[in-house]
Specification:
Blueprint: H1 2-9, E1 14-22, E2 27-33, E3 36-43, H2 48-65, E4 73-78, E5 84-89, H3 100-123, E6 149-151, E7 154-156, H4 164-183, H5 187-199, E8 212-214, E9 223-226, E10 229-232, E11 238-240, H6 242-252, H7 257-266, H8 273-292, H9 297-308
Antiparallel strand pairs: 1-2, 2-3, 3-5, 4-5, 6-7, 8-11, 9-10
The chain binds adenosine-5'-diphosphate and magnesium ion.
Family: Belongs to the fructosamine kinase family.
Keywords: ATP-binding, Kinase, Nucleotide-binding, Transferase
InterPro entries: Fructo-/Ketosamine-3-kinase, Kinase-like_dom_sf
């Protein structure tokens, strides 16, 4: 593995540092190289390349907005023998604490970035953003992403859709339901989902949703800080409803009041927010059910029971 890394990075120095460990999905290790310190995630699952390519594209997209700090992605590498590596810039991180409020502000800026591009485009009579250089980010008027991204190791269907509610029902919940069906054939889940689908449009009355670039897996384990401010990492990005982002944040904690108040001072809660948040948590509970087993079944069914009432 280290020989492949050296070759692919074109570095003569490759020295492991004391930083190693892992998240919920992959193993990690830092190395000093000719070009500085890098962080290397490795995973031997068959899906690892797809997962890391999605992470690389997500980090690139967030990086381009210049709103929140993320590690700069470097390369996805297949190692002879089966595992896949993802190399990125190493960042010296500690737990989010001092910079919570700043994360709220910067996350809102990330979510507003595409909308602001759209506003600029309108003002300039549809010329700005089209005539710019190749690397300019373009306004995105649909929901999805140009590649599959994985929340955990399971792929998300990111095919472009004009309508968010359709996107969320068909490309987020339905694939999770299909996996449950395949693994356990849960009749109760199937019946509740049939009822909930009829109810979903009523949770979105009079909402105008502008696609927002999302981190997509923003739980407490994927945020940190350094002296300069907050850092987010391990994204599973796509263009979606900004409210979706706060769903997993609320499930496992780790975000203070100052984070939420800073965020909502830029993106105020719209009417019906709390119910939609539950609807968005349904995806994450089901995704956990499909990753980690039926310990998450009860929460998934409860959300559906409450929403169809
Ligand atoms: N770029 C990085 N620089 C330094 N440490 C990192 C970097 N990325 C991740 N880590 C460390 O690895 C841990 C898990 O990373 P993460 O990307 O969330 O892995 P997983 O995909 O397995 O959840 C983080 O909590 C952090 O301690
Ligand atoms: Mg993680």
């Amino acid at each position: 593995m280290e020989a492949a890394l050296k070759r692919e990075l074109g570095t003569s120095v490759l020295r492991p540092t004391g930083h190693s460990g892992g998240g919920c999905i992959s193993q990690g290790q830092s190395y000093d190289t000719d070009a500085g310190r890098v962080y290397v995630k490795s995973n031997s699952k068959a899906e690892a390349r797809r997962m890391f390519e999605g992470e690389m594209e997500s980090l690139s997209a967030i990086l381009q907005t210049q709103t929140v700090k993320v590690p700069k992605p470097i390369k996805v590498i297949d190692v002879p023998g089966g595992s896949t590596l993802f190399v990125m810039e190493h960042l010296e991180m500690r737990s989010l604490n001092r910079h919570s409020e700043k994360l709220g502000t910067q996350l809102a800026d990330l979510h507003l970035h595409n909308q602001r591009l759209g506003e600029k485009l309108k003002k300039a009579g549809n010329t700005v953003g089209k005539s710019g250089g190749q690397t300019d980010i373009q306004f995105v008027d649909r929901f999805g992403f140009h590649t599959v991204t994985c929340c955990g190791y399971l792929p998300q269907v990111n095919d472009w859709q004009n309508d968010w509610v359709t996107f969320y029902a068909r490309q987020r919940i339905q694939p999770q339901m299909d996996m449950v069906e395949k693994n356990s054939g849960d009749r109760e889940a199937r019946e509740l989902w049939a009822q909930l689908q009829l109810k979903i449009p009523s949770l979105f009355c009079d909402m105008e949703i502008v696609p927002a670039l999302l981190h997509g897996d923003l739980w407490g384990g994927n945020v940190a800080e350094d002296d300069s401010g907050p850092i987010i990492f391990d994204p599973a990005s796509f263009y979606g409803h900004s409210e979706y982002e706060l769903a997993i944040a609320g499930m496992f904690g780790g975000f203070s009041n100052s984070f939420y108040s800073a965020y909502h001072s830029k993106i105020p809660k719209a009417s019906g927010f709390d119910k939609r948040l539950k609807l968005y948590q349904l995806f994450h509970y089901m995704n956990h059910w499909n990753h980690f087993g039926s310990g998450y079944r009860g929460s998934s069914l409860n959300i559906m029971r409450n929403l169809v009432k």
